[in-house]
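I had to read the description of the data format several times before I understood it. Each protein is reduced to its one-letter sequence and a matching series of backbone shape codes. The format is easy to grasp once an entry is in front of the reader. For illustration, here is how one protein appears when written out as sequence plus structure tokens:
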Amino acid sequence: MQVLALYNVKGGVGKTASAVNLAYSSTRGGARSLVWDLDPQGAASFYFRVKTESSGSGRKLEKKKRLRLRLRATDYEGLDVVPADFSYRHLDLALEAAGRSDRRLGSLLAPFRDCYEYLFLDCPPSISLASESVFAVSDALLVPTIPTPLALRTLEQLEGHLKTLGVAPRVLPFFCMVDRRKKLHREICEQAERRFSMLSTRIPYSSHVEQMGLYRQPVQLYAGRSAGASSYKALWDELAGRLAG
């Protein structure tokens, strides 16, 4: 099982939309995939029409057995979800209390490794003990990036932080919310592709992607011919090639 974390320290950059659409795309070729919604806001769970929970203070880390019991099937063959829990807002405290947080999170994932080919972690926007634990267990960080100077600065800071921590997941950033009509967007995309190992597929700014909150489905299902749907499919194809290489 490959662990793929959708992560960015900034919010509102398309992490959840990307997690849902990439996970769905991964199953179209017959793979089994799991999404773990680590964001207490529960947006990925909402898109999958799965009820979130609130199991208490969250000061104790979930046990393997309970995590397995919380597993839910989605409406899509081969795609399951562990829904968000509002107690995840205290995940840092739970990891600190558990000690060796990198190993603890890894042990929670162990029961799923023989059941799925891909695990997508939809991460909250933060730099914290929880995010550092995600870095330690992930095979790749998929970093949705909007085409602005500050977003590139954040990406540079992330790469520097990973070096400081001494962890080495592959960092695979890609552009989201790209408006090809804007000269600045085009220039920033070209500049970034010279500086970082960006995935070449760009997700356009699209009203169809924004409508996920209305349809509560991957965009390929309600707007299959749209630029957003074709871009996410192309992004998965590119990403799968990178992961296999």
Observations:
- Residues 227-244 form the longest helix (18 residues).
- The two ends are 15 Å apart (CA to CA).
- DSSP finds twelve helices and seven strands in the chain.
